[in-house]
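step 3/5: co-fold with EPU
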Amino acid sequence: MKFVVNGGRKLRGEIEVRGSKNATTKMMVASLLTDEECVLSNFPRIGDAEITKELCSSVGSKIVIDGSVLKIKTPEITNFKVTKLSRRNRIPILALGPLLNRVGRAEVPILGGDKIGPRPVDIHLEALGAMGAKIEIDEDYYHAEAPHGLKGTRIRLRYPSVGATENTILAAVLAKGQTTIENSAIEPEVIELILMLQKMGAIIEMGSDRKIYIEGVPKLGGVSHKIMPDRNEAASFASLALSSPDNEVKVANTRQSDLMTLLNAVRRVGGGYRVEDDGITFFGAKNLSATNIETDTHPGFMTDWQQPFVVLLTQADGTSVIHETVYEDRFGYVEDLNLMGANIKVFSKCLGELPCRFAGDGQPHSAVISGPTRLSGRNFKVRDLRAGMAHLIATLIAEGKSEIEGIEEIDRGYEDIDTRLKKLGANIERVK
Ligand code: EPU
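step 4/5: write tokens
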């Protein structure tokens, strides 16, 4: 499937943000911790939720989706091996803790996901190992056992990885004794998972300085939870809206508290926004100015906002500098933007001040953007989810016609994106 886009249209109106992809999938896995029903509302109809549905069904979950409500119940784990899924993503490894807690064994497929660097899972495996899991890896699967059950312990993560923090929490809530996670991730999606687990009966305290304390309990129960709005969708729509002075777009169902760092960057480039009770309205300015950004873990500027914001910065006056400190190789898409007329150079030096794990190892993790540049339509194949969104935003800004192939990647994280963009006035068609 592809999108055919005729760019340069004025965008005005309201676009509603759906439930967060990176919270939804973890909550579906969290439901495996109980034999009772879990109800998730504001559920997004996206590709990654479909893959997670496949994962949960393969171990015994009964799932019903009605509009934007998902009901999931796993009375018993009928199979400790997650069958091979139709597509690979980053979620199956999070099922290790729930399966080990419920049946003492777990086999989950090796991960896939966006091609944005090697993305190892060593921190996940070390944490589960410290809690008593024995894990072996072959070409296709992680094979795990916890013959004596999982036990709470003190774990210090080498890096505040979102996935490793969530994995440890999912393992610790039903483990024996107390687990302390030091240097944990504190992204809003992690907090959202903790809130759901608390409602299910878990005892989790947030300490100062990235510490999380979990007191294992013998059993968790069902829950009803409304999924938080997707802050990556919000940042994508904001970047698009700000790209032209003719645009005025209300990004509805979004929360200022999740977007504080983004909103500061918007002010710095001279874009306008107005925070309202039920969303934030963004409007472009005639002269956007260049800025410097360093991506970081929360509460820093999110790495997933980097790509749409870089597209916006191609329209800003002057030289912008981006230092990506979360992933070592997340600028692949700029090659395509340059073919559209952008002027972006990528460097392996750290062009910023934050401590960075990639200093001196030759990874292309900084970029310099000179603007403003006029973009013209072009044909592409999508590389990964956020890069795909960057392509899409660029083609909506560009003059002329573009075709974007491989849009299943974009569908993984953005529900029915073409229909929603059309309502703003975008000229975009989905073609089979
Ligand atoms: N890392 C390790 N070892 C590990 C785990 C992570 O070295 O065991 C490294 C990674 O290679 C990366 C960094 O730590 O360089 C951060 O990875 P993290 O584990 O925090 O990321 P993740 O849990 O795999 C989630 C989101 C990503 C988002 C990151 C950072 C999901 C499904 N994915 O990934 O979202 O970029 O956190 O906030 O929650 C996206 O939605 O497009 C996306 C890529």
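step 5/5: annotate
The mean pLDDT is 95.
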